[in-house]
Write a structure and sequence with these properties.
The chain is mostly helical. It folds into 2 domains: 26 residues, no CATH class; 110 residues, no CATH class. Helix content is 54%, strand content 8%. Strands 1-2 form a two-stranded antiparallel ribbon. The protein starts with 10 loop residues before the first helix and ends in a 10-residue tail after the last helix.
Length: 167
């Protein structure tokens, strides 16, 4: 038996919902509230976070760098993301944040691909939080860490076959 809430919509019902494309949106009159929502969305979408990538470094050893190191605005973007122009603080906090993502760092060493994904996610989250100084960035790092820990713990608690103590 399928669950009605999670089952796909009936074909009959989906015909009632018209497809919307950009031309339809261009013709539409928007309310003031809708215009404000669209403006907020466009502002959020325009905030592009700094991205990282894995490259082959010296002696064919992989290392992590910024995706576009020649971007003339890279330092400005990093300063905005971290609330400080101090590169040492930026690197230190990004490293700390990446460590709270599951699988990015382990006793066996770092998985660079997972670490890059963690760093890119962290940079996107920081762009949304928009810390204004080092203290706010430290609080943002803690928010990211606590969130990841809570979600991981809740996920583990929901695994089947555990004892009551395991949950």
């Amino acid at each position: 038996m399928t669950n009605k809430k999670n089952s796909p919509p009936d074909k009959e019902k989906s015909k009632d919902v018209p497809a919307v494309n950009n031309q339809d949106l261009a013709k539409r009159e928007f309310t003031q509230e809708e215009k404000e929502r669209i403006a907020r969305h466009e502002q959020q979408a325009s905030r592009k976070s700094v991205k990282c990538k894995v490259i082959m470094g010296k002696k064919n050893k992989p290392s992590i760098t910024y995706k576009d190191p020649d971007d003339p605005l890279l330092r400005v973007k990093l300063s905005e993301a971290f609330g400080t122009a101090d590169i040492g603080v930026q690197v230190h906090l990004l490293d700390q944040i990446a460590q709270v993502f599951n699988g990015a760092c382990s006793a066996d060493g770092n998985n660079n691909e997972v670490a890059v994904t963690a760093m890119n996610t962290a940079m996107a989250i920081l762009a949304g939080i928009q810390p204004q100084n080092e203290v706010e960035t430290m609080l943002a790092a803690q928010m990211i860490g606590v969130h990841n820990m809570a979600m991981r713990t809740m996920g583990l608690a929901m695994l089947g076959g555990q004892t009551l103590q395991g949950r």
